[in-house]
Amino acid sequence: MARDITSAFNTAIINTVVQPLFAIELEISDGTLRFWTGNGDITMTAGGSSKTFTGLGDFLGISPITESSTLQMQGINILLTGIKSSLISSILSAQYTNRDATLYMGLFNTSGTVIADVYTLFKGKMDVCNIAENGETSNISLNVESRLVVFELPKERLYTLEDQQIDFSTDLGFEFIPELQDKEITWGKKTQ
User: Fold this and answer.
1) H or E stretch at 91
2) What is the pLDDT of residues 18-52, one digit of tens each?
3) CB 140 within 8 A of CB 131
4) What whole-number distance in Å separates Cα of residue 136 and Cα of residue 185?
5) What's the predicted TM-score (pTM) here?
6) H or E stretch covering 90
7) CA angle (34, 111, 7) in 5-degree steps
8) Are 81 and 137 in contact (CB under 8 A)?
9) Cα–Cα distance measured from residue 67 to residue 132, given in angstroms and rounded to the nearest whole number
10) Is the confidence at residue 1, as pLDDT, over 50?
11) Which residues pair with 24 in a beta bridge?
């Protein structure tokens, strides 16, 4: 599968010394949380725009990211460690289920700055979040499902005039559907 990476990223990844960083972006109902595997705040171009990520040190545990040549849902599990207890209450009160989560991989150049446009490793929808508190900090285990999960959701649309006009207000293609419900149709008989 082709990858969209910049030439600077490609040059850095084939060097003999590679300095990677990982970052996570969680879009919860109270706002967007951004963390990275380092200390302090760092600003980088991720997902096409400049964003600031808060450093949590070695915060990430990431399950293997797998790909398949078929359309299969492959989710991941992300472990965030060292989360301050004050942040846990906002996570517990916010809506996170079925909201976007994005995992990025970036590289530092030899001068310690992030190379342009970090790579999106995985993007999906947040599912189950388990929190284990231990005094001042907490660990969060978050399941992120593939965006392909929407293909398994039931479609709640009907073949009615009213439903069709939600998207196409002038379309009258379904206006005779109610009449067809009890209509007797002669099929395969000679008519007179």
Assistant:
1) helix 85-93
2) 788 888 898 888 888 888 888 889 988 888 888 99
3) yes
4) 73
5) 0.68
6) helix 85-93
7) 75
8) yes
9) 30
10) no
11) 35, 103
